[in-house]
Specification:
With about 500 residues, the protein is α/β, with parallel strands linked by helices. It is built from 20 helices and 13 strands. It has a five-stranded parallel β-sheet. Bound molecules: 2-acetamido-2-deoxy-beta-D-glucopyranose (3 copies).
């Protein structure tokens, strides 16, 4: 790509007959030309402004966009191109050899054009606490779970074949099951996390399940945190609008003592059956303080969630109304007199439903027996729209329900700019970049109005909004494919299997 800088770096020779005056004049003309050109360049070519590192960010949001764009470029450029490179990168990153079967995995991922080869820290973070537990003890924990828990299945793989396995999971790894070592794994049937897992010392022969449905779950979820000093630090710095810079930090329960008051899962989950035991257990979602191993949410493959030919977005971003759209059901908690105001969906709608830039509301009340009428009175009821109505708006909000939101990929694949608020960790967290593929929203939402104003009214913000909307769509098409979930799960299962044989010491294949 030719930037104004490189375009004018052709050797410029001044031959003798020119006087100093004409030389200076030429310099001046070139200078003016460059200046005008770079000005026009900034104003006209937003694509170039996006890419050029020389443009000075004039708005804190622009700064975040440019910073994260560079980060994402580095991410793309550093991915390994061969198994040898990937092994080297793995050793460098984790100071140990990769698990057996890794080279084959790399070849498979490369053959499928996986955009991500090296960056699977999500897997590492979740697997590593289990490395300190012996194979013998892990097996005992799995048995203990099987004997006393519910809403799960045990997937067994023997000689490269499934012995026991539900259809969804089977479909997702059917292609590669013959590459996997023998293993047994516990798969969650619920779309909530289950393993609070702080108790490494707890008797591993027995699993104790606790039911937090419609109870306060904050205490158990934040039990690992030391809040007092952080709370003080926070109070000192909250005068300016604070945009979400690091989504991982935003998901961190221990960094957000105020969150207990802001999310339905913390104060009255509709369903939450969890254990403090440390169990190697695969769920589609988890929280920062929890210990579930993360598999992709396979419902994202279902057309109900990603849409079909009838729900393709044909509206150009520039033609969409500059408003935020969200309609949905009142999920996210079990509603009670004492806690309904602390539900994240209610808070969002209450806060913005009368705002001219928002077209949002509940279209149906659920999980509120004996209390739905009162809720409707306070928060309002909107008609149910067809699934494509949201495409008429530039800004699509996506927020948690009882678990993670199933509409996320459908929104990313549209031409809308996706705003994402969540407290649930998912398999894709490493690969979706804030301010490049989507706009992160804090649980408090104090910054939301200012962010919308930037993308709706700022001259550069209008163009950046389109770039992020379209960039997110392109990236989702390349990196959130069903095959990407297979590639991720394949690698996860190699790491998981290696836990059982002292993976750290094993030789490379
Ligand atoms: C990978 O990309 C190459 C080059 O664009 C293409 O020819 C090939 O069909 C792709 N393979 C898969 C499995 O998508
Ligand atoms: C949307 O419209 C703009 C302006 O008319 C145009 O430059 C752009 O290419 C269009 N984008 C798509 C995806 O059609
Ligand atoms: C929003 O508008 C409704 C209906 O006009 C009104 O009853 C409600 O009090 C308003 N809510 C807020 C937060 O202003």
């Amino acid at each position: 790509m030719i930037t104004p800088k490189t375009a004018f770096m052709v050797p410029y020779r001044i031959s003798k007959p020119y006087s100093l005056r004409s030389f200076l004049l030429i310099c001046l003309i070139i200078g003016i030309f460059l200046h005008i050109r770079s000005y026009l360049f900034q104003v006209i070519s937003s694509e170039a402004a996006y890419i050029s590192n020389t443009v000075k960010a004039s708005h804190p949001i622009e700064k975040l966009i440019l910073q994260n764009h560079r980060k994402h470029q580095n991410f793309l450029n550093r991915q390994s191109k061969t198994p040898e490179e990937a092994i080297k990168a793995y050793r460098k990153r984790y100071q140990r050899d990769p698990p057996p079967g890794f080279s084959k995995w790399v070849r498979y991922a490369l053959a499928q054009n996986s955009t991500v080869i090296d960056d699977y820290d999500m897997i590492e973070e979740r697997i590593s606490p289990f490395r300190s537990i012996s194979s013998f003890d892990l097996n005992r924990r799995i048995k203990a779970w099987q004997e006393s828990a519910d809403a799960f299945e045990t997937v067994k793989i023997r000689d490269g074949k499934f012995v026991d396995c539900g259809e969804q999971f089977r479909n997702s790894i059917e292609d590669i099951v013959d590459q996997l070592p023998d293993m047994d794994l516990l798969l969650n049937w619920l779309d909530e996390p289950r393993i609070v897992g702080y108790d490494h010392l707890r008797d591993s022969n027995k699993v104790t399940m606790e039911d937090f449905a419609s109870k306060d779950a904050w205490e158990i979820l934040s039990g690992k945190c030391h809040f007092s000093s952080q709370k003080k630090m926070k109070r000192d710095t909250t005068t300016k609008v604070k945009y979400v810079e690091d989504p991982k930090e935003a998901l961190d329960i221990c960094s957000h003592p105020e969150a207990w008051n802001q999310h339905g899962f913390f104060n009255s989950p509709s369903n939450f059956r969890a254990t403090r035991n440390v169990i190697p257990f695969f769920s589609t979602t988890s929280m920062s303080t929890m210990a579930d191993l993360l598999t992709p949410g396979l419902d994202y493959v279902d057309w109900h969630y990603i849409g079909d030919a009838k729900t393709v977005d044909n509206i150009n971003y520039t033609d969409k109304k500059p408003q935020m759209y969200w309609k949905g059901w009142s999920t996210g908690s079990w509603f009670k007199e004492t806690s309904w105001k602390r539900n994240h969906r209610v808070r969002f709608i209450e806060k913005f439903r009368n705002h001219s830039m928002f077209n949002i509301g509940f279209s149906k009340y659920v999980q509120c027996d004996g209390y739905c009428e009162k809720l409707e009175e306070v928060v309002g009821l909107v008609p149910i729209d067809p699934p494509t109505t949201g495409f008429e708006y530039k800004f699509a909000m996506d927020l948690d329900g009882n678990g993670y939101s199933g509409r996320y990929y459908r929104l990313l694949l549209s031409n809308c700019l996706v705003f994402k608020q969540t407290m649930f960790e998912q398999w894709h967290d490493d690969r979706l970049v804030p301010w490049v593929h989507y706009i992160p929203v804090s649980l408090g939402m104090e910054e939301l109005e200012s962010v919308l104003d930037y993308f709706a009214n700022d001259e550069k913000g209008l163009r950046y909004g389109e770039q992020i909307a379209m960039g997110g769509k392109e990236w989702a098409k390349k990196s959130l494919r069903p095959i990407d979930m297979t590639i991720y799960t394949y690698r996860l299962l190699l790491e998981y299997a290696a836990l059982f044989e002292g993976g750290a010491e094993r030789r490379l294949d």
